[in-house]
Amino acid sequence: MVEDFLRNIFKVLEHHEIRLRDELSQVLLVNTHVLRFIAEHACSSDSRTRVVEIGSGPGNLTYVLSTFCSYVIAIELDPRFATLLRELQRRTNVDVVIGDAVMLVKALRGIDIAVGNLPYHISSQLLETLARSSVSRAIVTVQKEVGERIVARPGTDSYGKLSVVLQTVFRARILRFVSKKCFRPVPDVDSAIVELERVKNFDETIEKLQKLAKCLYSYRNKLLLKALKMCGVEASKCLPKELACEVSKLRVYQASPELLEKIVELCVQE
């Protein structure tokens, strides 16, 4: 059934002369094993799971999600895919919204999980949107490099401001890597499927943390105390002596999310 549906997608795209757009990072995941892997991890533990799909395209993943999950909201920015998605909407458990997921996801309530093959050019923006939303869990496909940045540990080359914010809000892990050959057209890079499980809401403290991390990572290799001062935080004056001593030994890229959050709580007033 999935194979037949995928074949039909390409026939309809060809019939309507719809070409996938590079500027929107439009690539289709066509490997049925990977599609089922995503749907199973999203919904198999509870058949009542309600899903929002970010960037549904012509509905290749939407179709598979609808067979595993009780309810799917498919959000797609490109109106050219509306005809294909409306056909899917005939299924009683799929609703289609043509609009911008960046704007819509933050406003959704009553959704258990977000799923999506995130467009490469706005993946960081969409990940921030998920962090700010009420979604408690997400399974997203991103570029391999982005996936490695999400889960990177302090002190590693991949660790940065994205790692800090997402690891503060979510428990993150890579479920599997996906070859670029599983997509059409074939992109330049492999991908990673990442699971995000919420541990904290995006509150005022994390808002401050995000702003501080953005500033600090302009000085990635500098000593943390010096970089904090350059970002307007006199850490030596507001931290307990023992913690200030720990901070003095670190460079920016070595500071854990927990340490930076503590600095924000103690030292950042605005």
Task: Explain this structure.
α8 (161-169) packs antiparallel against α9 (204-216) and α8 crosses α13. It is built from 13 helices and nine strands. The termini are far apart. The protein is elongated, with a radius of gyration of 21 Å. The model has no long low-confidence stretch (mean pLDDT 91). It folds into two domains: 2-198, Rossmann fold (3-Layer(aba) Sandwich); 204-267. The strands form two sheets. It has a seven-stranded mixed beta sheet, with helices on both faces. Helix content is 43%, strand content 18%. It has 270 residues and is of the alpha/beta class. It has helices at 2-15, 32-43, 60-68, 82-89, 101-104, 123-132, 144-151, 161-169, 204-216, 224-230, 235-238, 241-248, 257-267; strands at 28-29, 50-54, 71-76, 94-98, 113-117, 137-143, 170-178, 183-184, 191-198.
How are the strands ordered across the major sheet? 4-3-2-5-6-9-7
Radius of gyration: 21 Å
Q: Which strand-content bin applies to the residues?
A: 15-25%
What oligomeric state is this? single chain
Separation, N- and C-terminal Cα atoms = 55 Å
| SSE topology string | HEHEHEHEHEHEHHEEEHHHHH
* Integer tally of domains: 2
Largest sheet: 7 strands, mixed
The CATH architecture of the largest domain comes to 3-Layer(aba) Sandwich
In one word, what is the shape?
Answer: elongated
Low-confidence runs (pLDDT<50, min 5 residues)? none
**Count of DSSP strands:** 9
By CATH, the superfamily of the largest domain comes out as Vaccinia Virus protein VP39
Computed structural class: alpha/beta
